[in-house]
Backbone:
């Protein structure tokens, strides 16, 4: 045979073909002293809604958007874990885990229970979702975590030890100390911190720290915080092993080509050494997974088995299957002192021009909806408790579940796709509808005289009471707060001849205010767009009247028509003011008065009680959203706020102000421009300013996305400093263009100074405090001294490249015509003498969170009071919670026990009186019930508090010991049943009431 | 609370949340009489190399090219099958299955054995790969199928029942009758047939037929053939359930949104009814899978479980987990008469301008390499048998495995990516190297006198014998055919003074021919490019001398230098001829003479023995490959031949012919153009023309891809008719622009008339036959009457859009300079009197397939014959196989038994004498061995022939009964050991030889 002239490649030596090459991998390594230990932590990150809805992610539908199916992850995980007892996995998002669990048969359930109890499958973090930390309220964080932890405890007897907030876009102090330490977590892991901060920390090996998130709690709420060096994915060097991933698999079959064990071991060791180089102790963590991975778990484990086997055979380092718990214990065992971190990790930037501060405001309507539902859920659970929880429903459960999902870091954040935002809203709507039924039923029971066993809903379905037929409207007003509440109600009416009576038959002063056509137009449009029905007759007036409601109770008011009676509701006087006339304009019937300037922005605020006088203006502006075209592709979008110029919105001074005056409230209506309408209110009995804004449709016909902000501009010398709350709880000092723990290079002087505002924002100048409180989560800042701004609405035309792949361009469509979404909302403003602002911020802030809950009925004639209980408080009538204490949770659980949670509302030193230790007398809170058993628990109610404190790891901190005394309530004496609360303390209890003689738990 | 103005969607009714919704699916349905039965057949189609190499596909590496990992498929399959005993799966490609199997531990192996024995996992088709049917030789098809079936039989005791050639690009008659019926298959499924044929068959419900592929065997080799209506994927309507597929999953959890059971059931029923509409009987098959699917098998089964459950609950149709076996049995049980199909399904077109006839030639070097190795493997196994198979190696096993892979329908077809083609070549190279060692060792044993237990290789490593030192070259010539063979050898030599002796010391006439520089240049270039070494001194001559070798045996020749002896080798006379001189040019020293015309294309062929005289020309042309730009994007590519114009290649009449003349052979050398060189040979003792061509580098600097064809143009009146072989075996009549069983609309008058040529192509005019035989698989046609053309080489610049995503542009690179691959090859031409051509085509065709095998040694002086056996035949020296019979297989198996396969080479009626029943006398084939036990088996040797025939389903055919008597050999009488073979019959035996007295199985 002549010379072979064909394409031949070099002949390689191979093992004899045909032989079996079954290789048992040794994956049994534990921690090895004296070696670098690589904790291989297999995990998946499953967003509870983002590009697809939670259900779509679970079942794996809508894969054209994103190939992701959580059912695959969990289904495939079980055989993979069974294959090798050393394999481990963590699972995080309980919303998914619960969906999966209820689809399983008993055999699988038993198997999984075994895997969990042996630690091979560990449920960590454990809330229903991995909640956001900027745009969520702490009460929602607690509720959704409690819901998840409860399931884990009940079903598996497990208590999550680890906080695993690996994806949220910045991290809050409240998360660290409250949802971390106070939940009993030993550590808390995440990765999204400012890129400059990260770079510094890598250099100084300070990615792992002890985080002291609470000034009030000091070291008692320290937690170990681990920041990942890059992200929550496998280390650099191609270690992705999902089906279809293109990392090189470990090819160790000598009978096949491309054997690469040596290269892969070298890659792994190199990655480990690089990470060890920026990490203290000889333990590092490899987070082996990412979004929705482990669709076929075996594909990962197969390769990790091999890596562990061959790396340990190589011997340079030690690799082990691990979990964050094992890693944390190893860190703790190293007995190191760790750098201290205080405050929080906001704002987050991943690039010089990429501050993730847009999402503080993105989807403001959804944010408001979530906040409304949160307060409603709190109240509804109280009413569910009063009535007794019914298995046959209606219950508050669906609302609780919907709210839990809405806390996800791509839900309330506004960073999900539009159809997913719709899904969250739909769930809230369903939950609200069910909770409303429960509320109606409960109120019916509470109001009904005689037998309460068959109480029926007071609200027969009606949408409008026809006063002309002698009927009157019964308004039941429920107060979920623990203190008596005076407030002004507003009810839409048709008639201009209205009279209001209280539950004792006394006439109540009231005022009629014509409903602004701006408001009516929105109502009409949205009823048509979302309900598909015609909105019917338009009410003409808001009827405003003051109400007084006892704590944890209700009062009843009666609205009827009365021709020309002396005591008829006052019609507001109406006055139009324009241009220079405005400078004579003053509103306010009580202590607080506002004086307008010629431009129509009010300029003088004066409070005759506190003697505060201050000048400021109320203005609007918008930022042009960077479009991301050109050489720098970073657009402003759902996540990222990147302004490309500021445009002041000038009020047309030709457009008159409209002023409504009356005995209850003065209102100033201003059409700021064609798409901003503003109503400023001063109530006679209240010492703050309420501003209602209607913003939108934001025009984009100039091709620019716009981000609309309200400004309050004063001449206060605030020295670059302002304060924003952390998840609605602690206020944190912010200094413009400055970070307290690291040196910032400023690239984005506006976006980089934005912070999340859940409760409020304030500035002070040594003499006074200017506070603004909000009705939802919002982005805010003080961009100039004396100034506060709130980002009210964002309408953008470009995606910002962080995955959602949609422009944040919310629209409302009617007859195939779409226009930008209109946002309606309120903010509240008050100026207090220095040192006094906290009282309003805290107490009134709680009232904003928990508005009065209304129910309506009709009566023919005046017989209601004869057949109903018109006024009620669940508490001892002479008792009220201290001003500093809120009842966060009063909820009957499935087993009849009751979850009870009180919160001290003030930080240590925040207020000279109200920051003191406070007490709650449970016997007076529940005067008609006998507490059989009461156990104090962790914040998420999944373990006894005492056991938690004993168990929780105490971490050592570098530097001098923490100074300052921490005030916490002492142990509760079961005979006294008095709960003490130190500043910022939240105490959680499981209470078992003894059954009353009647055998019912009703009051 | 005022009217909710937020985005609310309609509230939908949901089952009570929180309840368990574990649903046990009823998947137990079998066939239901009176209903439409949908056979749900889960399958994966795993190419044994295509875009990635077979090993890359297996381990899942190189996923950036294609996300595919067969290990995932098989790993995930096992738990999925265990989950529900009704789930079924078929697996096809044994190359993958064997790779996986040898990685498994005993527990998994036991589990899998259970699944296979219970029919839940069925291994069908069962070859190492799903071989191609156009470019493969039937011997390779048999070998690769035998290899796969052997494993299945030995490991699992199973015999595959079903042919499953779902992807090859057209289907051969040999596949149907030989690799189908003769293997014992009951049915054969596929989908790629001409789109016009398919459309017709859909209308007439003739997608399922009985295929009678063999004229010789008639109905005795009928097989049920099922053509899929569209492809081998799930039916239309989105039923793809791979991880990440975007078909709607069946969402049946009432607690989640998007419940869609009803829609999905309707989709399924609609798909079933549509398919039922074009299918006979109430059974249809849904092929649930496609390329490399079931990476996570559960994802498919989960959805199929639900579909079967809910579809059967719906009740309109019956869905069942099935396999092609169950489906076939159901079809058979229907007791229908089926339409008859004869001939084959070539060529395949999936669109008017998309004839898959390019791949008949694509990668001609690889095709030649495969064919060379195929013949070598046949011979090497004989030598392995003579020596005795050794477990410690070397063996022919690797070559067998490499050849098996190379038969894959993206291997020898040339439709794989370049790096994958390299992988096949590498495997062949390794296999060849090992087989060479075995061959050397075996020949050493056979030649050695005395003890054969430690025989050493005769070929000590030498590349060149230095005659000047008195050494001579020993040439051992092995003949693997069953008959004595006279041939001319060619050995490169340096000296011009050479003498050749035979094994009895007689001088043999020989001739020296200067080696053409075209050949030397290729040698130099390829040695450098592929071996990376300098090629060393250049031999000057080919030494040609006739040899005579006994059947299944060898002879020895001695080449030495002898100064100026009378008997020295004749140097060829050299003569240059140009222009009109050519017309006087005549070559041929024997019966056959060729007379050239002025253009240098020879014009007169005359054979003084047969008295044939015929005029014809030998020409070259190229087709311009359609580039696929413009409105019609179909390019010519690896699969598809789509010419865009024909360019004749004119021989420059200024370039002289070179004529070499001598006692053995005359050669005419022609530089056709700058990149085509042709040598035409006429051997004194042979009555055919041998044409060697060197084509390339095909220039593409004009931006055109080119497809180069050789033409033989005669004036024969061939009436549009020509004949091409089916996989190297039966000749099938082809008529230009015509299909025998359906009406074709001609869109591609060239590409649509191309057919695969493995053995040869011929035309006839009633007086004579013009036959051309080839040295590899190639595309050929008769585009004009009297003409034959062979596509020799293809170099194209565009991908043709069938998945490979590479242009077929083979290059050779040296010092970073790449140029087009040069193809060297031969074709053979003969003109016979009408009715006589088959003898040459069959007998010489077999010699082309099985060239003489050479081994070299050196001797000092003339002592070789004293110490060695110089001449040998394994058979009785007086015996020879009949001219009509070839020994296809003589192979010792691992257990010491021997696989023996004889083939009758003639079709019924093909030759007046040689088509008769033939006999092989085994006692004379193995004169020195005693046959202990001999069992006739199916073609793939996995079952007894008698049992197979009894078991195999007999299908009814529409129309009159088949006429004509089928001649097959009768049962073999074990005492006589004479095997009879009817026309085209291949008979396979497992033989156990009794041990010889010496205890060795050697001769």
Residues:
């Amino acid at each position: 045979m002549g010379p072979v002239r064909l394409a031949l490649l070099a002949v390689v030596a191979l093992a004899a073909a045909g032989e079996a090459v079954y290789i048992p991998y040794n994956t049994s390594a534990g921690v090895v002293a004296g070696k670098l230990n690589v904790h291989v932590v297999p995990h998946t990150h499953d967003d509870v809604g983002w590009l697809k809805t939670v259900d779509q992610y679970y079942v794996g539908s809508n894969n054209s958007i994103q190939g992701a199916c959580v059912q695959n992850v969990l289904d495939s995980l079980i055989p993979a874990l069974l294959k090798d007892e050393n394999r481990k996995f963590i699972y995080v998002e309980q919303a998914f885990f619960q969906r999966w669990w209820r689809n399983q048969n008993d055999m699988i359930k038993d198997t999984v229970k075994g895997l969990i109890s042996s630690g091979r499958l560990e449920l960590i973090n454990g809330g229903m979702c991995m909640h956001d930390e900027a745009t969520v309220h702490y009460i929602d964080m607690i509720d959704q975590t409690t819901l998840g932890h409860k399931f884990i405890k009940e079903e598996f007897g497990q208590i999550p030890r680890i906080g695993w907030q690996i994806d949220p876009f910045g991290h809050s102090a409240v998360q660290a100390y409250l949802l971390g330490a106070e939940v009993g977590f030993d550590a808390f892991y995440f990765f999204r911190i400012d890129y400059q901060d990260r770079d510094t920390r890598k250099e100084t090996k300070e990615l792992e720290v002890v985080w002291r998130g609470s000034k009030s709690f000091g070291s008692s709420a320290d937690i170990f915080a681990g920041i990942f060096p890059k992200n929550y994915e496998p280390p650099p060097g191609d270690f992705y092993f999902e089906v279809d991933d293109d990392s090189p698999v470990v090819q160790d079959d000598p009978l096949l080509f491309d054997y690469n064990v040596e290269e892969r071991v070298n890659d792994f060791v190199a990655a480990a050494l690089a990470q060890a180089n920026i990490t203290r102790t000889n333990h590092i963590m490899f987070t082996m997974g990412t979004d929705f991975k482990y669709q076929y778990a075996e594909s990962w484990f197969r390769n990790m088995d091999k890596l562990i086997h061959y790396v340990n055979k190589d011997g340079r380092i030690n690799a082990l299957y691990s979990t964050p718990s094992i890693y944390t214990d190893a860190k703790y065992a190293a007995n190191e002192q760790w750098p201290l971190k205080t405050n929080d990790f906001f704002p987050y930037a991943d690039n010089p021009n990429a501050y993730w501060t847009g999402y503080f405001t993105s989807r403001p309507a959804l944010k408001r909806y979530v906040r409304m539902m949160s307060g409603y859920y709190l109240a509804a659970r109280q009413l569910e408790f009063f009535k007794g929880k019914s298995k046959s429903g209606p219950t508050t459960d669906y609302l609780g579940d919907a709210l839990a999902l809405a806390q996800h870091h791509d839900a309330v954040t506004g960073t999900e796709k539009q159809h997913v935002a719709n899904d969250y809203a739909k769930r809230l709507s369903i939950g609200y509808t069910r909770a409303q039924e429960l509320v109606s039923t409960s109120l019916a029971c509470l109001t009904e005289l005689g037998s309460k066993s068959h109480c029926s809903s007071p609200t027969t379905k009606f949408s409008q009471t026809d006063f002309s037929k002698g009927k009157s409207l019964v308004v039941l007003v429920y107060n979920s707060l623990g203190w008596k509440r005076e407030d002004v109600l507003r009810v839409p009416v048709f008639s201009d001849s209205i009279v209001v009576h209280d539950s004792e038959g006394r006439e109540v002063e009231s005022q009629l205010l014509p409903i602004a056509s701006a408001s009516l137009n929105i109502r009409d449009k949205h009823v048509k767009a979302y309900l598909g029905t015609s909105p019917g007759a338009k009410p003409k007036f808001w009827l405003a009247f003051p109400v007084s409601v006892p704590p944890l109770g209700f009062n009843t008011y009666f609205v009827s028509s009365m021709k020309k009676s002396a005591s008829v509701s006052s019609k507001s006087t109406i006055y139009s003011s324009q241009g220079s006339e405005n400078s004579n304009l003053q509103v306010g019937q009580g202590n607080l008065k506002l004086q307008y300037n010629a431009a129509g922005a009010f300029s003088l605020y004066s409070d005759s009680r506190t003697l505060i006088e201050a000048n400021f203006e109320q203005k609007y502006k918008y930022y042009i959203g960077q479009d991301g075209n050109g050489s720098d592709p970073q657009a402003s979008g759902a996540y990222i706020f990147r302004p490309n110029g500021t445009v002041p919105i000038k009020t047309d001074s030709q457009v008159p102000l409209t002023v409504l005056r009356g005995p209850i409230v003065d209102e100033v209506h201003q059409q700021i421009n064609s798409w901003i309408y503003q109503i400023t209110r001063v109530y006679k009995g209240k010492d703050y300013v309420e501003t209602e804004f209607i913003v939108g449709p934001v025009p984009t016909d100039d091709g620019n996305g716009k981000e609309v902000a309200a400004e309050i501009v004063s001449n206060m010398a605030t020295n670059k400093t302002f304060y924003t709350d952390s998840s609605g709880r602690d206020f944190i000092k912010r200094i413009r263009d400055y970070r307290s723990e690291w040196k910032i290079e400023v690239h984005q002087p506006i976006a980089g100074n934005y912070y999340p505002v859940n409760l409020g924002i304030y500035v002070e100048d040594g003499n006074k405090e200017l506070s603004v409180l909000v009705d939802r989560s919002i982005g805010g800042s003080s961009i100039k001294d004396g100034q506060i701004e709130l980002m009210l609405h964002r309408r953008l035309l470009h995606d910002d490249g962080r995955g959602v792949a949609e422009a944040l361009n919310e629209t409302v469509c009617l007859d195939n015509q779409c226009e930008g979404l209109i946002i309606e909302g309120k903010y509240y403003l008050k100026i207090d003498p220095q040192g006094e602002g906290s009282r309003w911020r805290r107490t009134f802030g709680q009232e904003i969170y928990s508005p009065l809950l209304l129910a309506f009925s009709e009566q023919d004639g005046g017989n209601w009071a004869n057949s109903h209980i018109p006024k009620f408080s669940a508490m001892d009538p002479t008792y009220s919670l201290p001003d500093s204490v809120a009842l966060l949770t009063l909820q009957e659980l499935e087993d009849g026990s009751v979850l009870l949670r009180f919160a001290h509302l003030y930080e240590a030193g925040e207020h000279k009186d109200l920051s003191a230790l406070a007490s709650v007398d449970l016997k007076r809170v529940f005067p008609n019930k006998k507490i059989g058993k009461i156990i104090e628990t962790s914040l998420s109610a999944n373990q006894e508090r005492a056991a938690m404190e004993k168990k929780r790891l105490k971490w050592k901190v570098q530097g001098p010991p923490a100074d300052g005394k921490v005030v916490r309530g002492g142990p509760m004496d079961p005979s006294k049943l008095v709960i003490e609360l130190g500043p910022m303390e939240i105490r959680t209890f499981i209470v078992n009431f003894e059954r009353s003689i009647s055998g019912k738990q009703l009051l």
